[in-house]
Amino acid sequence: MKNTKKIISLVLAICMLASLAISASASDLPSGNMVGESGGTGTSSVTLSSTADGSIGGDPAATKMSVTVPTVLPIAVGTDGTVSTATDAKIVNNSFGAVKVNSVSIEAAQGWSLAAFGDKATLAHEKVNSNKFGFSLCLGDGEKKLTDSKNASKQTLLTDAIEGCFMSGVGDTSANSIGIAYDAIVTPVSEAVTNTAIASVLFIIAWDAV
Question: Are strands 132-139 and 113-115 parallel, antiparallel or unpaired?
Fold first, then answer.
């Protein structure tokens, strides 16, 4: 009787080990669609996840925008009214994706007024220290945009992206930046000024998306 119990226990142990082995071997099989015959097909879908660190299973995140816009657009006016501006001003796209300058506006600082841009002689009749200036701006190889005499405080120079406003992603270093060509005319001043803020130019940057 004792031997019979031992045999039964041994058989049960062997069955248990066999079931574990079968379970383990089944778990080792690759998951997915099975192809069961020669010439059969299997389909794999390709999925995309945008993540913060580019890893599978990482935190969801969209492409990061990183665009550098000049902090200052300096203007120097000589004693004869001749104006000089920076020749190396530019906007640089450091993002992976393409971007565009969607609009541009200019707002006069307190105590200053916008005037129509043109020849400096157009301001010759203005009183000294009247603090008026005209401004022009051109992005890339696009059209030059000028201030007018319609609004002395704030004006929109660009309402939509036009030629010269588009930049590729940072991977294309030949097209990921655009130059800013600008000019001004300024009324005379009775005392020397240094780095006085006379206006702010607002560049609205957006993805160049479909």
Answer: parallel
